[in-house]
Amino acid sequence: MITTTTPDASALLLALAGSAAAGLVGSVAVLRRMALASDAMSHVALPGVGLAILLHLNPVLGALAALCVGTLLIWAVEHKTRLPTEAIIGVVFSAALAIGSMLTSGDELLEALFGAPHTPGRTELLLGFAAAAVVTVFILRAQSRLVITLVSEDLAITAGIDVPRLNLLFLLAFSLTVALGLRYLGVLLMGSLIIIPAATAKHLARSLRSMRAIAVVTAMASTLIGTLAAPRLGLETGPLIITIAAGIFFVSLLKRTDR
Fold first, then answer.
1. Domain holding 63: CATH number?
2. Which domain range does residue 93 map to?
3. Which of 16, 71, 147, 149 is most buried by a 10 A CB count?
């Protein structure tokens, strides 16, 4: 159902906080060549959403539980087998999508997939801002270590970095970011908000710091414009936000960058 009213200030602020976290996480995910894998990983939340609906619980809690379990499974299999992260995420994503589709149906499934703006309760609001703060602090403090790991795991180990633990923490930060946007964008679209602004930033930025800043600004601007414009245009908020982000990406391609 198309939303015809603009969400209140608390919902918009929470969405913007989640968007900022998405931009930060995405800037690392794109550098780690996890664009497609990152989008697929957001779908792991679907079984948790379906189970929470069946048990009459908050869907966000179910999604977060499923994402944490999926993250630990992906990390454990990767650590045990040395298979590429993208391949493991693909397997877990496929299973999660199948199970989630069996647990949800009708309007509940559509809302889980595409999200729906709503007014968050006080507890959800506080937990949401706390989660966004945790993700933001982690990325800002760990980005240099994540980049060193990307360049060379051997170099990272020599520098005293616990690579498996760092990878696990990044996957958990990614999962937490996805959970932040589930009620707003759904499992299909939240991964897009993580990746598209970061891809835009990678094309435009000349340094890691500027890439991070551009990704955050793009994600937040897309969310703000989409949220305010959707009711006036009679469109769904989530798809409009991602369409705006994609539009910004394609416009950014018109700018030539000399590296």
1. 1.10.3470.10
2. 9-252
3. 71
